[in-house]
Design brief:
The chain is α+β, with helices and mostly antiparallel strands. It has helices spanning 2-38, 43-46, 109-114, 152-155, 185-188, and strands at residues 67-71, 79-84, 92-98, 116-117, 123-124, 137-138, 160-161, 168-169, 183-184, 197-201. Helix content is 27%, strand content 17%. Strand 1 (67-71) and strand 2 form a beta hairpin. The chain is elongated and about 55 Å long.
Length: 206
């Protein structure tokens, strides 16, 4: 009797598992069709289309957990990003993350344009802040700051949206000294370097 009951329970569990998988595949299919239609592709052609989310906001939290996904902001071949699906309701595209000193962030313009390092660790994902509003991004080899006498990116060893020069610089030197470190002045009214930073963006319509 016990053996029969156990078998019945196992059969029920397997059936529930199969239903769960079916619902998962159905949701994936619906997401794929929705994405195709948003790009003007007729429904009949959507069946064989790859799921091409424009950004992390297109992911479904019931299916997609925080991790690396390929997004397609335009009609190009796409690129991989880290999507944070947990913080503050999720759907964040992470474009900067720092936790230690393994990655040097004092790159030139091309490095910041193309992105660099390990998407699963520390990185900058390609291309803010009252004082820094209306400022342009500067690197050590492309000076766009508002300081007429020096290149702030060179002086403070980190690329950023510099004015003349900064009250924040999350791309500064890890554990650097004073204003040459990873700074966010108005957090504690000090230029003491902070240990970790993450920068994320998401669609305002969420």
């Amino acid at each position: 009797m016990y053996g029969k009951l156990a078998k019945k329970d196992i059969d029920s569990t397997i059936q529930i598992y199969q239903w769960t998988n079916d619902m998962y595949e159905l949701r994936r299919s619906l997401l794929r069709v929705e994405e195709c239609l948003s790009r003007g592709i007729c429904k009949s052609k959507c069946q064989n289309e790859e799921f091409r989310p424009k950004d992390c906001s297109r992911l479904d939290k019931k299916i997609h957990k925080s991790g690396v996904f390929k997004i397609f902001p335009d009609s190009g071949s796409g690129f991989k990003v880290y999507c944070d699906m947990d913080t503050d309701s999720g759907h964040w595209t992470v474009f900067q993350h720092r936790t230690n000193s393994t990655t040097i962030f004092n790159h030139g313009w091309t490095g910041y344009k193309n992105g660099f390092c390990d998407i699963n660790a520390e990185f900058w994902l390609g291309d803010s802040l009252a004082y820094h509003n209306d400022t342009r991004f500067s690197t050590k080899d492309n000076d766009n700051d508002k300081n007429g006498s020096q290149n702030c990116a060179s002086v403070y060893t980190g690329s950023w949206w510099f004015g003349a020069c900064h009250y924040s610089n999350l791309n500064g030197v890890f554990k650097g000294s004073g204003a040459k470190g990873i700074n966010w002045y108005y957090w504690r009214k000090t230029f003491d370097t902070i240990q970790t930073s993450t920068m994320m963006i998401r669609n305002r319509k969420l």
